[in-house]
Amino acid sequence: MAEKRKREGEGKLVLGYWAIRGLGQPIRLLLEFAKMPYEDKLYHAVRKEDGSVDKSSWFDEKFKLGLDFPNLPYLIDGDLKFTQTNAILQHLAEKAGLNGKSTEERAKVGMLFGFSGDVRARYTRASYSPEFHAMKADLLDFLRGKLKELAAYLASNPAATSDLRCLVGSSITYVDLLWYDLLDQFKKLDPAILDGDEMEVLRAFYSQIHREPTIAAYRASSRFIEQFNNTSATFK
User: Taking Cα atoms as reference points, which of 212, 192, 215 lies closest to residue 202?
Assistant: First the structure.
């Protein structure tokens, strides 16, 4: 059976995803930041005695929800039911005003989402590999290089101020929340990953999102999920 957790309030939003952060966490952070009531429907992958992983909590429901392309994550918004992470993020960001204020800003937001996908793919591939510990040093070198690129991009944003560091424009968008979650995971992978002068702007960015009242309240709540990757991963 799937587990249900709710952010109280009126609304018909239902987010379905595994009981991990993974691809679902940026969506949860957007919902929490925007104070949008939702039901977090969690599916559990359970390790069995024989070592296999039971994912029946999802597969028992997968084709019964009326989804055109059944997958996780999915979002139900009233009569609208759909899947795919980016489609969900864009839909909710548009509703919440977190997708950029102009055509140019929205293009940059989309670019940063794509860049995050490149970084996440390498990180996820290593995290789920039985050879994770052998791959870790190369993974960290890769991540540091990409984060230096991100830091330089963030520092070049002419609209950013010392009081509000954003990746795009002068207000928070969904890619700020997405990258905050990735940085949070990378800091667990290596607590020193944001050390050094080149990373100072990213440390400030991370701390800023971390202190946001809605995000801080979410992290302190029972709704917050600690596990990064699913049961079959080496780095969870």
Answer: 192
Q: For strand 74-77 and strand 13-18, is the pairing parallel, antiparallel, or unpaired?
A: antiparallel
Can you point out the beta strands (E) in the chain?
3-7, 13-18, 38-43, 46-47, 53-54, 74-77, 80-83
Taking the mean position of all CA atoms in its chain, how far away is CA 78?
Answer: 23
Q: How far apart are the C-alpha atoms of 73 and 166, rounded to whole Å?
A: 26
d(CA 229, CA 226): 9
pTM of the model as a whole: 0.94
Report the interhelical angle of 200-211 vs 174-189 (nearest 10°). Answer: 110
pLDDT, tens only, 103-136: 999 999 999 999 999 999 999 999 999 999 999 9
Q: What angle do CA 162, 166, 236 make, to 5 degrees?
A: 115
Closest residue by Cα to residue 38 from 62, 22, 14, 3:
14
